[in-house]
């Protein structure tokens, strides 16, 4: 039978719910892709929330954007200019768009193709393709984040995999088997993306007048953690009453995002203006997002972004996030520089910080980072 015709409206993800008192139970959550496929008009209550402030969202042509080609070239003046934009963008929004990134467009096309191949399968087909994830938290297809009882659920389907270190997936059936080249393609992309992220971290160190290796030295190629998450936001009949991805910061050093098929959806809070901005994301540009750990390491000179994804009526959207982290057992702290004497952040163990963030999430504003503040 055709894979795409075997779905039913009664497909569910199993979501683990942790209540305030610590008790744990499992909730069956409708698969939003299946709801959208069946053209539902009434969004189930568990996804509804008070009307969104979307009318207050700002649009700007001047969103921070850097050219990697200029940053990597030998033209001193052009490089200085990109370094300034990088530092400024990370300081104001906690993110910058990256053009001329050097990752072949043919590879980006392959990434889109395998992702669409997977999400084009029926629900049962997807489950068969990915196998089970019994021992890895938050990995796998479609599990929702662990949420307190009363919080509305996000309008999203997800697929999360460990990319690095490779041994960490040993024995687990963590990658889709269908499409057959899924893993190979995403790993090739992650390899190129890692070079890009290393270059950005070196550039950032230069922009902040730190030693060039100040950040990348935490990123030993053998031990660093890279997770990949595909976010799929199907069309939603009630965009003002739902959220694709609730406001959050990423528990990373950096996150690299690519998106398709449409450019709207991601919004970010401006640090001082306290207004949501829609990210004007050109085709084929990538987006690099500051996570909480880089905020700590830079002693607040760059800020992790407070961001969210909204839903849209007739449009579907995919994004692929690569989350870059040091090993969970590593300690990080603000990097000493000549001009800093006051440290606003303290030493934390990466894994402890991540656990803290997941424990307190979701929150209405950026509070998890306070755990790492003096
Ligand atoms: O869909 C997007 O653009 C944002 C995704 C995101 O914030 C995440 O995966 O952490
Ligand atoms: Fe995020």
Describe the structure.
The protein is α+β, with helices and mostly antiparallel strands. The protein has one domain (50-372): Jelly Rolls. The chain contains 8 helices and 17 strands. It has helices at 32-37, 68-72, 76-92, 105-119, 123-130, 182-207, 292-297, 350-360; strands at 12-18, 24-30, 58-59, 65-67, 95-99, 140-141, 157-164, 225-233, 245-248, 254-260, 266-269, 276-278, 286-290, 307-309, 317-325, 331-332, 348-349. The strands form 4 sheets. An 8-stranded mixed beta sheet has the order 4-5-13-10-15-8-7-6. Strands 3-12-11-14-9 form a 5-stranded mixed beta sheet, with no helix packed on it. The N and C termini lie far apart (60 Å). It binds 2-oxoglutaric acid and fe (ii) ion. The site of fe (ii) ion has 4 residues, from loops. Belongs to the iron/ascorbate-dependent oxidoreductase family. One of its GO terms (molecular function) is dioxygenase activity. Keywords: Dioxygenase, Iron, Metal-binding, Oxidoreductase.
């Amino acid at each position: 039978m055709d894979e795409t015709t075997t779905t039913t409206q009664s497909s569910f993800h199993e979501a683990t719910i942790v209540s305030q008192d610590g008790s744990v139970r499992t909730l069956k959550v409708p698969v939003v892709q299946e709801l959208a496929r069946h053209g539902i008009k009434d969004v189930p209550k568990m996804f509804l929330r008070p009307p969104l402030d979307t009318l207050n969202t700002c649009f700007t042509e001047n969103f921070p954007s850097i050219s990697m080609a200029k940053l990597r070239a030998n033209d001193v003046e052009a490089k200085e200019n990109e370094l300034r934009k990088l530092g400024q963008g990370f300081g104001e929004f906690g993110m910058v768009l990256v053009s001329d990134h050097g990752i072949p467009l043919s590879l980006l096309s392959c990434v889109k193709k395998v992702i669409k191949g997977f999400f084009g399968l029926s629900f049962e087909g997807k489950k068969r393709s990915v196998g089970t994830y019994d021992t890895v938290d938050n990995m796998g297809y479609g599990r929702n984040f662990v949420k307190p009882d009363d919080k509305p659920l996000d309008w999203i389907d997800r697929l999360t995999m460990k990319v690095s270190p490779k041994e960490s997936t040993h024995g687990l059936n963590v990658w889709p088997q269908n499409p057959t080249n899924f893993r190979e393609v995403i790993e090739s992309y992650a390899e190129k993306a890692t070079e890009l992220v290393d270059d950005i971290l070196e550039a950032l160190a230069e922009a902040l007048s730190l030693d060039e290796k100040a950040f990348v030295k935490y990123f030993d190629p053998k031990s660093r953690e890279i997770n990949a998450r595909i976010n799929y936001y199907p069309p939603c009949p009630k965009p003002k009453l739902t959220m694709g991805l609730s406001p959050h910061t990423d528990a990373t050093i950096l996150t690299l995002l690519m998106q398709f098929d449409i450019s709207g959806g991601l919004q970010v809070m401006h640090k001082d203006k306290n207004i949501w901005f829609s990210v004007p994301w050109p085709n084929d540009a990538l987006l690099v997002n500051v996570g909480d750990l880089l905020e700590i390491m830079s002693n607040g000179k760059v800020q992790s972004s407070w961001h969210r994804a909204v839903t849209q009526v007739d449009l579907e959207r995919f994004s692929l996030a690569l989350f870059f982290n040091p090993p969970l057992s590593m300690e990080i702290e603000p990097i000493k520089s000549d001009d800093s004497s006051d440290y606003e952040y303290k030493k934390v163990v990466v894994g402890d910080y991540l656990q803290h963030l997941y424990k307190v999430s979701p929150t209405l504003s950026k509070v998890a980072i306070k755990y790492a503040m003096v």
